[in-house]
């Protein structure tokens, strides 16, 4: 019953760039001249695959000569479910895509629906969205950096330092939306609740203290010689390959391509803020780590400006309809710069309460596609670190 | 032993007196084996307990380093509500480990899979025999004690390889390969860092090496090997190599929990796992004990007037502070990659240890220099070490530096 169009691998020819960047030669598993290669199935239960992800690695000693990513263990029919629920009904499901960044997932989905329905958003809601999105970026990058160090073999110390700060942001999410991680906060035409001045004051206090934490963290870790030796020159991704494979987010910028949707699209009210986009030069694991650290510093700047300028007013457009919401037939693609890269939602409406087509462009999934190219010729220990620096969340990869 | 009368206090002699009292009940022909068995029993009891509380200390220390309290829940049976700062945690852990199911993979080599944890503990225990714990406390005082110690210590890696091979698991096998690579790389600097001590003390016997570090009457700075240029470098190399020998972070590659799940321990559970755990701590105790013996004056008090404190307590304090230092490193550092580890050993530690050998030779030749020549002696010795250290170190970390980044316009 398999469809030959999909089943045959030749339907997706390998781009020539991918072939030229595969430096290591792949030889048969059994070879009488070189001894046997070792095939190790890392995952789906493995401490460093960040969930139920599997890498089938073929090893020559400890050097990887072949790596096959296997996923789908967490597939839960997200996109088909989206076609069978109302537009609003999908909003809580988007929390579960990248469960560390529910606020940005919500925003991307809300943006797509607002484009579809031509729904305006009040001024204050735009500020609230920016504040929440940048807080999410801080939360996500802190998690990533902490877990990356865990993959590098520290005994949880950097992770728990990062989690101490993350906890404070998560607490604020809880006090605003009622949930620490599954926030379900954005609506079509605004936000669900209007943040109180006290809440904004708490955010302001936390954000002002954040650079101090970053300084401490960097002082303890960034110059460490073992970190430099383990990450510099490891898992290089060339800008050509990154662009051809559709990589986005910090990973693309680490390869030296200055592409940020906040600047390119200028969605929401981002053009009003003064911030810079850091770019790396080598595209290695160290650059990817530093991109996150530098982006956190820029996020703090955006947050301080947004908290200073936020106007009073409603956070919900009075004309927006949540119940019995039927956008006119058409299609829309809404995308934002999520912490992991471009998160986008593509919707087709036929005028009914449910979308005809609901499709998620998940950054983790796309960024994961080049994992083999980065790992070939490196060791097992490197592959774990490279995977950690890609920043995947399996909820988003498998959907 | 040639203990001076003024330090021969009751506490100092207590362990020996108890032994002699017990031995006195036995006929002449049985006294030697009974004495040996008593020493074994005492060591098993003392180091068993030390091991138990070291696990607690490590968890507490890691916890404190990570903004969390560490284990503090376990109390006493039948006394609900008592918590005792988690002091009974090791016993709860022991009960848990003993009662867990022992799983052996069907494809494993059953004999080797069983032998490996037994041997790893046995080899680790064997190293305890030659360490002088106090003025009169050494189980076996053999002339080539230092050689024996390192031979027995290296054998633990063999048991680890056995475990990795017998488990019939790919992670275990990679862990075993790493263990062997690590052994070959680190045994050499470990031994080379010890050679100057043997050269200067003129003996391979640990007890005589401790006596060579005895306090000079009236001296304020302890007459320990670590307070000489070659001793300081030797001690540093010894500690780095000891971390690798004990499979501790940042050299815990055979275990490598983020890469190899648990390395050679992957297929071990229950009490066999506990034995490996025990062997790791015994290895740490043995190596730090030997480090204290060789470089930190063993059971010698730092100053003459502090000699009223029993010698075995001084030894315990030195050993425990070295172990706590190892735990602190574990809470701080990242793991190296196997090729970086071997490169560090062969291209940095081995040359440095060889150069240190030359420095020690210079030091022993210039023993008669005094007065202003003393400063010249120190300056030459330091230059002999620092210059190669800087040159080799630069080459080792060539091309690695924090970067500055540009921003998109």
String of helices and strands of chain B: HHHHHHHHHHHHE
Instruction: Supply the helix-strand structural class of chain B.
Output: mainly alpha
Number of helices, counting only DSSP H or I runs of 4 residues or more of chain A: 17
For the terminal residues of chain B, how far apart are their CA atoms?
78 Å
The assembly state of the depicted protein chains is heterodimer
- Rg of chain B: 23 Å
Rg from Cα of chain A: 22 Å
Q: What is the helical fraction of chain B, as a range of percent?
A: 55-70%
Beta percentage of chain B is under 5%
> What shape does the CA trace of chain A take?
globular
Instruction: Work out the largest interface and the residue count of each chain.
Output: A-B, 53 and 42 residues
Mean pLDDT of chain B: 83
Q: Give a short account of the largest sheet of chain B.
A: none
Largest sheet of chain A: 3 strands, antiparallel
Distance between the termini of chain A: 24 Å
Written overview of the protein:
The complex is a heterodimer of chains A (399) and B (409). Chain A is α+β, with helices and mostly antiparallel strands and 399 residues long. Chain A has helices spanning 4-7, 16-21, 78-83, 91-95, 102-117, 123-151, 157-177, 197-221, 225-231, 239-244, 250-254, 261-264, 285-309, 363-368, 371-375, 380-390, 394-398; strands spanning 38-42, 54-60, 63-70, 186-187, 190-191, 277-279, 330-337, 342-349, 357-361. The longest helix of chain A is centred in the middle third of the chain and has 29 residues, at 123-151. Chain B is mainly alpha-helical and 409 residues long. Chain B has a domain at 103-366 and 375-388. Chain B is 63% helix and 1% strand. The radius of gyration of chain B is 23 Å and the shape is globular. Chains A and B meet through strand 1, helix 6, helix 7, helix 9 and strand 6 of A and helix 6, helix 10, helix 11 and strand 1 of B. Strand 6 of chain A pairs antiparallel with strand 1 (406-408) of chain B.
């Amino acid at each position: 019953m398999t469809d030959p169009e999909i089943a045959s691998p030749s339907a997706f020819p390998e781009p020539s760039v991918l072939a030229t960047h595969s430096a290591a030669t792949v030889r048969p598993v059994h070879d009488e001249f070189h001894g046997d290669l070792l095939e190790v199935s890392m995952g789906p239960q493995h401490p460093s695959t960040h969930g139920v992800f599997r890498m089938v690695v073929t090893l020559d000693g400890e050097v990887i000569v072949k790596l096959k990513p296997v996923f789908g263990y967490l597939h839960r029919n997200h996109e088909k479910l989206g076609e069978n629920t109302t537009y609003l009904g999908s909003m809580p499901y988007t929390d579960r895509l990248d469960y560390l960044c529910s606020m940005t997932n919500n925003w991307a989905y809300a943006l797509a629906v607002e484009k579809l329905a031509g729904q305006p958003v009040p001024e204050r809601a735009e500020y609230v969205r920016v504040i929440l999105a940048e807080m999410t970026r801080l939360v996500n990058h802190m998690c990533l950096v902490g877990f990356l160090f865990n993959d590098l073999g520290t005994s949880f110390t950097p992770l728990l330092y990062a989690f101490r700060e993350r906890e404070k942001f998560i607490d604020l999410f809880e006090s605003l939306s009622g949930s620490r991680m599954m926030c379900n906060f954005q609506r079509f035409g605004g936000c669900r609740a209007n943040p109180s001045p006290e809440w904004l004051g708490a955010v302001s206090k936390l954000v002002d203290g954040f650079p101090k934490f970053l300084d401490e963290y960097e002082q303890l870790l960034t110059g460490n010689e073992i970190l430099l030796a383990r990450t510099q020159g490891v898992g290089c991704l060339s800008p050509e390959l990154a662009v051809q494979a559709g990589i986005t987010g910090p990973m693309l910028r680490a390869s030296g391509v200055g592409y940020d949707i906040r600047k390119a699209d200028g969605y929401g009210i981002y053009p009003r803020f003064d911030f810079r986009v850091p770019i790396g030069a080598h595209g290695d694991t160290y650059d990817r780590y530093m991109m996150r650290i530098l982006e956190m510093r820029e996020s703090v700047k955006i947050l301080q400006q947004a908290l200073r300028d936020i106007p009073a007013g409603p956070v919900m457009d009075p004309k927006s309809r949540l119940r019995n919401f039927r956008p006119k037939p058409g299609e829309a693609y809404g995308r934002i710069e999520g912490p992991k890269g471009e998160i986008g939602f593509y919707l087709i409406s036929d005028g009914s309460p449910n979308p005809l087509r609901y499709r998620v462009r998940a950054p983790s999934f796309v960024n994961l596609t080049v994992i083999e190219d980065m790992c070939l010729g490196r060791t097992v220990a490197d592959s774990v670190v490279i995977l950690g620096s890609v920043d995947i969340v399996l909820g988003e990869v498998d959907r | 032993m040639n203990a001076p009368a003024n330090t021969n206090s009751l506490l100092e002699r207590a362990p020996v007196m108890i032994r002699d009292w017990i031995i006195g009940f036995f006929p002449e022909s049985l006294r030697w084996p009974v004495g040996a068995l008593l020493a074994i029993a005492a060591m098993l009891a003392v180091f068993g307990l030390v091991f138990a509380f070291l696990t607690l200390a490590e968890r507490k220390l890691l916890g404190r380093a990570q903004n969390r309290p560490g284990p503090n829940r376990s109390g006493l049976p039948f006394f609900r509500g008592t918590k005792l700062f988690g002091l009974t945690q090791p016993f709860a852990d022991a009960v848990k480990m003993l009662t867990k199911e022992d799983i052996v993979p069907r494809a494993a080599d059953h004999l080797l899979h069983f032998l490996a944890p037994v041997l790893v503990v046995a080899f680790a225990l064997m190293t305890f025999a030659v360490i002088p714990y106090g003025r009169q406390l050494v189980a076996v005082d053999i002339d080539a004690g230092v050689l024996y110690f390192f031979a027995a210590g290296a054998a633990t890696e063999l048991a680890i390889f056995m475990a990795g091979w017998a488990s019939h698991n790919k992670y275990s096998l990679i862990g075993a390969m790493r263990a062997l690579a690590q052994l070959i790389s680190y045994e050499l600097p470990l031994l080379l860092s010890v050679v100057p001590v043997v050269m200067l003390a003129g003996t391979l016997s640990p007890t005589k090496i401790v006596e060579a570090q005895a306090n000079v009457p009236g001296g304020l700075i302890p007459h320990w090997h670590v307070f000489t240029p070659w001793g300081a470098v030797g001690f540093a190399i010894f500690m780095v190599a000891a971390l690798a020998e004990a499979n501790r972070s940042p050299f815990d590659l055979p275990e490598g929990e983020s890469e190899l799940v648990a390395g050679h321990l992957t297929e071990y559970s229950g009490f066999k796992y506990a034995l490996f755990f025990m062997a790791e701590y015994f290895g740490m105790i043995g190596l730090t004990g030997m480090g204290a013996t060789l470089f930190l004056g063993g059971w010698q008090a730092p100053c003459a007037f502090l000699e009223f404190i029993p010698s075995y307590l001084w030894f315990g304090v030195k050993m425990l502070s070295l172990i706590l230092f190892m735990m602190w490193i574990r809470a701080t550092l990242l793991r190296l990659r196997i090729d970086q580890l071997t490169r560090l050993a062969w291209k940095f530690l081995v040359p440095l240890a060889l150069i240190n050998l030359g420095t020690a030779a210079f030091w022993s030749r210039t023993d008669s220099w005094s007065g202003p020549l003393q400063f010249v002696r120190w300056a030459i010795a330091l230059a002999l070490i620092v210059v190669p250290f800087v040159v080799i170190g630069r080459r080792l970390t060539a091309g690695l530096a924090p970067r500055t980044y540009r921003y998109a316009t």
